[in-house]
Write a structure and sequence with these properties.
The complex is a heterodimer of chains A (about 325) and B (about 325).
Chain A (H helix, E strand, L loop, with lengths): L2 H15 L3 E5 L16 H4 L4 E3 L4 H13 L3 E5 L10 H11 L10 E8 L24 E4 L6 H10 L4 E6 L14 E6 L2 E6 L8 E4 L5 H15 L3 E6 L1 E3 L3 H4 L7 E4 L8 H13 L8 E3 L10 H7 L3 H13 L1
Parallel strand pairs in A: 1-2, 1-3, 3-4, 4-6, 5-6, 9-10, 9-12, 12-13
Antiparallel strand pairs in A: 5-11, 7-8, 8-10
Helix pairs in contact in A: 1-5, 3-4, 6-10
Chain B lengths: L1 E2 L11 E4 L22 H22 L15 H6 L8 E4 L4 H8 L2 H9 L16 E2 L2 E3 L6 H15 L5 E6 L6 H12 L4 E7 L2 E2 L2 E2 H4 L4 H7 L4 E4 L4 H15 L5 E6 L15 H9 L2 H8 L1 H23 L12
Helix pairs in contact in B: 1-3, 1-12, 4-12, 5-6, 11-12
The chains are: A alpha/beta (about 325), B alpha/beta (about 325).
């Protein structure tokens, strides 16, 4: 099953199981079914609870917060995650604050979905990975879609927390298959973490790569080439919740060389947050600082050959791992 | 006492006005404006409670007894008092940075509000929210301009479906109309026929910027652009305002959103000691103040309560100031 189908099915189930659930966004109604077709069939099946909105990201996020405030479950779709900047006030100053600024906990069951990332030629304002701008807001959790995490379970976890969540969906995942990996690898779950190892490679990998869902297939590509060409054994860790990150849950799976890979531009990144958490726990036991992989400090060009030069990918990770092992 | 004026533009959206304009009247130094009708005792007490509460706050700030900042509604107290019986317990009220009057009109709880502002035990929100972030039952205030409008639209959407007949009321100011969120929400309210009542307290100044310097056109014209009815209230007469708005507020409950614009006056500074308005503007605001006018028009009634309420608020302040610090949790947490 493709990731997009899994996500679509998760939304169908959510609206089916929860009569107070709403989904709103731009162009989400049938027959269009959303710019990436993730909401296909929903408005036909749940008329009245799937709501097409004007091009008003701030307002639709505020409406979602109002619905959540009155006890409903609200899923807001931002057509391109880049546009969530227009909802920043609603997320930073209203929804996340409301959980705790009124002196008692105000549960808000609310998810803002953000199709994210490049690789599809949409250019500088439709390709970004803006996760880092939402890190560190009390009352706001960040999740990322992954081929190793069933979206039903992810949505259940996001809503159960009772505080607003932003769900980043790397657009290149939509057409990929859920859970499928090269026979060279074995995938297992440890709580929120997906752990991917090279089969029969022994207990201790040479290096651990931590990557959110959108980078997972690129990390797997690097794992394969490093294994085949260099006999370097990598373990990949993919968390579903990016923030707050349960760093302690990572520890049993780590070794003394760690790389964090993400598509963001450099500077104040999720990866640097992860690195700090690990340095605080493992300083002195790591062979060197946690190495960060990210895209170049540049806008994301539209032309495919230029976009390739900017975005972090399989070869960036491959190179970073070799550098890290070289010390 | 309701006069219907021509619509502000060629659309069929009604824009009506209530009352007679008050304000600067030549060289007069006494109270200005038409005679106010006699208030019910409880309305007068509530008006005076809000007035003396706000005056007490400024005094406490001047003495250095309060942390941070606050925004008083001096001169605008009659707005929530007039609206009070038009709103029910099922209605949601969204307040703003200048919200003490809104809270007191709904809950008559000066102790809880002062404790919130002073960070003392018994604070409504444990002292976390302070003056401009308060939530209690179906009342909620936020400190960012325009932010509550889309949230209120979402709440109104919920009410329309789950509790038909209830409405969401949002208090905003003239300055709030600079925010795009206002228009996004008005668009939704009109499109989705939401029970949304937008109360605009147009006090002629946004912090330090005169309305004429920050707003092109009019509030009425902006409401008309969305096909949303607009009601202009220039009266400060509580009874008159209620009568004039009753039918329109009832229509909001049926899914006809409404913008009610009160032409009002901010007597005090934006927050504390930051009033740079020309003296004649402040004098005009004082001359149209309901407080002086009511004392002039109904001296016996006014004086029967004024000192009593002032003393009550003094007692509230003394009692709350003596409480231990709040612990960051509301009483209901």
């Amino acid at each position: 099953m493709r990731v997009a189908e899994n996500l679509n099915a998760a939304l169908h189930d959510l609206l089916e199981d929860d009569p107070t659930a709403y989904l709103l966004g731009e162009d989400v109604l049938d027959p269009y079914g959303g710019a990436f077709k993730i909401t296909k069939g929903l408005s036909t099946r749940f008329p009245g609870r799937v709501i097409g909105t004007p091009i008003s990201e701030g307002a639709l996020t505020g409406v979602a917060a109002g619905l959540a405030l009155t006890g409903n479950t609200a899923v807001a779709e931002i057509m391109f995650g880049d546009f969530v900047t227009l909802a920043f006030d609603q997320l930073c100053n209203f929804a996340s604050k409301s959980v705790s600024m009124y002196g008692e906990r105000v549960p808000l069951r609310m998810v803002v979905r953000c199709p994210t990332g490049g690789g599809r030629g949409y250019g500088p304002t439709h390709s970004q990975s803006l996760q880092k701008h939402f890190i560190g807001m009390p009352g706001l959790s960040l999740y990322e879609m992954s081929p190793f995490h069933d979206n039903r379970a992810v949505f259940a976890a996001m809503l159960e927390a009772g505080e607003p969540c932003v769900f980043f969906e790397d657009k290149v995942l939509y057409t990929r298959q859920m859970g499928r990996v090269d026979p060279l690898f074995a995938v297992r779950r440890d709580g929120d973490l997906a752990v991917v190892d090279v089969r029969d490679a022994g207990e201790r990998p040479d290096c651990v790569v931590i990557a959110p869902g959108g980078m997972a297939h690129r990390a797997l590509g690097a794992m394969r080439s490093l294994m085949m060409e260099q006999e370097i054994v990598i373990r990949l860790l993919v968390p579903s919740r990016l923030y707050p990150l349960d760093a302690d849950a990572l520890l049993p799976h780590l070794t003394d060389v760690v790389v964090v890979a993400e598509e963001s531009t450099p500077g104040g990144t999720w990866g640097s947050e992860v690195a700090h958490l690990l340095h605080a726990r493992l300083w002195g036991r790591l062979r060197g600082p946690v190495r960060l992989v990210h895209s170049r400090d540049a806008v994301i060009p539209t032309a495919a050959h230029l976009e390739d030069e900017v975005l972090a990918g399989e070869s960036t990770i491959h190179h970073a791992v070799r550098e890290a092992l070289r010390g | 006492m309701t006069e219907t004026t021509a619509a502000t533009d060629a659309t069929a959206v009604p824009s009506t006005a209530t009352g007679t304009a008050t304000g600067a009247t030549g060289a007069s130094t006494g109270p200005a404006g038409p005679r106010l009708s006699r208030l019910a005792d409880e309305d007068l007490r509530l008006l005076l409670t809000i007035r003396h509460f706000e005056l007490k706050l400024l005094e406490l700030y001047a003495r250095g007894d309060l942390n941070g900042t606050t925004h008083t509604c001096l001169g605008q107290e009659y707005v929530p008092v007039a609206l009070r019986p038009l709103l029910g317990a099922a209605d949601h009220v969204f307040s703003n940075h200048r919200g003490h009057g809104h809270y007191l009109a709904r809950f008559r709880d000066p102790h809880g509000l002062l404790a919130e502002i002073m960070g003392r035990q018994g604070a409504i929100c444990g002292g976390v929210g302070g003056s401009q972030h308060i939530r209690r039952d179906r009342y909620l205030s936020t400190g960012v301009q325009g932010e509550s409008m889309p949230v209120a639209a979402g709440v109104a959407l919920h009410l329309k479906r789950a509790e038909p007949g209830a409405l969401a009321c949002v208090h905003i100011g003239d300055g709030t109309w600079g925010e795009g969120a206002v228009y996004e929400a008005l668009n939704l309210a009109a499109l989705w026929r939401l029970p949304l009542l937008v109360v605009v307290e147009n006090n002629g100044v946004a912090q330090s910027t005169p309305t004429a310097s920050q707003m092109a056109g009019t509030v009425a014209g902006r409401a008309a652009a969305f096909g949303v009815p607009h009601r202009l209230v220039v009266s400060a007469d509580v009874n008159e305002i209620r009568m004039a708005l009753e039918a329109d507020v009832a229509r909001v409950r049926e899914g006809v959103p409404l913008v009610v614009e009160f032409v009002t006056h901010r007597l005090g500074p934006h927050s504390k000691g930051d009033d740079v308005r020309p003296a004649e503007i402040v004098r005009a605001a004082r001359e149209s103040d309901w407080y002086g006018r009511y004392a002039h028009d109904h001296p016996e009634h006014f004086h029967r309560f004024d000192e009593t309420v002032r003393a009550e608020i003094q007692a509230v302040a003394d009692e709350v100031a003596a409480r231990p610090p709040s612990r960051g949790e509301g009483p209901c947490a």
